[in-house]
Amino acid sequence: MLQKRLTQQISHLLETSDKVELRRLLKHMHDADFAAAIEDFPAQLILQLLLLLSLPAQCHLFVYLDPQKQSDVASSMSRNDLAALFSSMEQAARADLYNQLDTQQRQTLMPGLAQAERDDIRKLASYPEKTAGALMTSGYATLRSNWTVSKSLIKLRLEAPDKETIYQTYVIDDQRRLLGTLSLRELILASPDSLIENIMLPEVVSVQVTDDQEKIPQIISYYDVIAVPVLDDESKLVGIVTYDDAMDAAEEEATEDAQKSASVAALDSPMSKISLWELYSKRIGWLILLVFGALLSGAGLAFFEETIAANIALVFFMPLLVGAGGNAGSQAAALMVRSLATGDVEYKDWTKVLRKDALVAMALGLSMGVTVYFLGLLRGGPEIALIVALSMFFVVFIGSIIGLCLPFILSKLNLDPATASGPLVTTIVDASGVLIYFGFATLLLQL
Amino acid sequence: MLQKRLTQQISHLLETSDKVELRRLLKHMHDADFAAAIEDFPAQLILQLLLLLSLPAQCHLFVYLDPQKQSDVASSMSRNDLAALFSSMEQAARADLYNQLDTQQRQTLMPGLAQAERDDIRKLASYPEKTAGALMTSGYATLRSNWTVSKSLIKLRLEAPDKETIYQTYVIDDQRRLLGTLSLRELILASPDSLIENIMLPEVVSVQVTDDQEKIPQIISYYDVIAVPVLDDESKLVGIVTYDDAMDAAEEEATEDAQKSASVAALDSPMSKISLWELYSKRIGWLILLVFGALLSGAGLAFFEETIAANIALVFFMPLLVGAGGNAGSQAAALMVRSLATGDVEYKDWTKVLRKDALVAMALGLSMGVTVYFLGLLRGGPEIALIVALSMFFVVFIGSIIGLCLPFILSKLNLDPATASGPLVTTIVDASGVLIYFGFATLLLQL
């Protein structure tokens, strides 16, 4: 409601080209909210609005638009306006926008920029998605070890408007090798004459440009730092990833894992914006692949045709058994996938985890076996009850173990453990369940 | 490996009580790593180590120990040592520790603290878990609107050692009502004579003490702020939640959702530390509950006994059909649960999402129906193929719709949408699948 009123208000101000009132409005609210209010405007109108604002205000607003909108607006801009906007943008945002543009747009844009800026954009835009390099910004502040605190503070004040953060600074040598780090708080508290080398923290936790972005939020959260420095393969400082970009990465990773855990290929945009075709194509692949897994269960059933034909009652218990195995497997897989993702459990802990969880799997199997024994007695007599209870124990036990091991196996094969999804585990456990259940039944009923 | 060597080194220094070397070691590494290295020491040994350190160093190290270890170490401390440590701890950490202690420990501790500190602890410890109140710290810096920038900077420098952050400051009136906010960067860049009221940002995004912690990382990430202020029911500022605590909360929430999405009750500790009994008890409840859901499928099968007995081949296709429906349902549920959790989709979007996704569900059903038609032809003849294909279409379509709606229904009932897990959806869809499949079969085979 509020947003709708705001959108109308902005529309009105735009129609009357009321610059003063627009700027006042923007000053009194957060850019993110303002950007959300104009999100659905046509690109041409957003452009018109941006051009009413000062360049820094343009930037602040522009970076909150969603990437597709940014690229649409950029396409309608004149070369000069775009170059001006680009030059004032923070580097990481700039590289992201650059990646959104098509070849022609890039060619239009580049001549308007300074050489250093062109190099910077090309460099940042060259790192593969979801790596530290793609996430980092080059807008960090550096100090030298032989500077005094007061000299450093003066420099920081001068640089503050252009830097993504000045709250954490990095001490480098002539080759840009990282010597240490200092927070602004420590600088403010230190005596003005102290030398940086005497007060800096010499051991800095850093990541490599090629590292997976997944690591970064873990590091920031574990060490309670505001940013993590990024080094290239020559150990030179090339950027930092700040906590806010790390938080976005963490959310992206958790969303991707949640999607994979349900056998959906990772979506490229949020559900609210995704196209029907993309939503379909990200789901159908796994659904069809899993059909072939389910054929195994069907083949298992066909193999036991005689047993089934002679004892139709066995079929009634099948959903119960096979379902319980799949559920236990999904539980174990989800627990493992998440523990591997947060770094709580690592690949090397496999055997330890297996030993511990095998006991739990056994206890679960026993409890479930006892539960269905009574259900079996009630609905099929003592013979069926025994078959169902025994099968339940093994199906739940083996289902749990499969769910537990699959993420480790995928991780060993350098695949994402999150692919060990509920549906995949369920399909595998279903086939094992059919074999165990009807195997037992054939054996025990023949005795 | 590295950690093991470090652990041995620390053990050795402890045995020889080498204070100087211990302090040197601690200075050269991050407290989090040091704490991880001593995590498995007995409480008595950790206490001995802490007492070799200065009070601030004790604090820094202590807060990185896990909560159980903190409480063990606290139990072995003398009343005076504990009170001293407590007084130097940051307030949020203090309240967490207080919550870990038993009644007797609390009674031992309280008399050693100043009245203001006791009140502060009791207040912070009184907010329910997983609310903004429980997550917040009272270690924030406040300014007054009629102060100048230079006066404010002097005050911040004085307070810096005691505050959790000085990078974001809050402007309050005599009643502690929040008037605005300023970042340290803005303060540094402003002219020293400016009045705070003229440069502060008057619209501050805040949360209520009773708000769910889930909201906070979303706000921090959306507005790119370093902390969110927390207000009580009289709109007075009572604390702030900083980005690092928000990141921990986000990870906790994502883990909880991942667990719920596999029908595991939320675990109280990470997998690596959880007891066998807890792991068992968090899984068995849902497993047994779902047994009763699966009984529905069994009853459905019993109902169609005649059809099955006459056409055993129908059974072979059951895992395929029922599995595919469950998989499609799990996909839809996981996508919705995650979208609701990140705020990308809200409850009010239900009908819009349903309209859009019903088309996708139909397309998925069609594709799957066509796929299995050929499998049916190959393995059972044209009649079976038709039954299987038709059933597949409906099972996948209805499975998707159930998976899509369940999170919204749970959310409407004020339950956590994440409970709409794969196993729950699978169990419900299984039963519908059995009815649809054998219903069609009975109908078509009679014709």
Summarize the structure.
With 447 residues, chain A is mostly helical.
Structure report:
The structure is a homodimer of 447-residue chains. In chain A, the strands form 2 sheets. The first copy, chain A, has a 3-stranded mixed beta sheet. The first copy, chain A, has a 3-stranded mixed beta sheet with strand order 4-5-6. The first copy, chain A, folds into 3 domains: 2-126, MgtE N-terminal fold (Alpha Horseshoe), CATH 1.25.60.10; 141-248, CBS-domain; 276-446, Orthogonal Bundle (Tetracycline Repressor, domain 2), CATH 1.10.357.20. In chain A, α5 (55-62) crosses α7 and α17 runs parallel beside α22. The model of chain A has no long low-confidence stretch (mean pLDDT 86). Chain A is mostly helical. Chain A is built from 22 helices and 6 strands. At the A-B interface, α13, α15, α16, α17 and α18 of A face α13, α15, α16, α17 and α18 of B. Chains A, B: One of its GO terms (cellular component) is plasma membrane. Chains A, B: It is a multi-pass membrane protein. Chains A, B: This is Magnesium transporter MgtE.
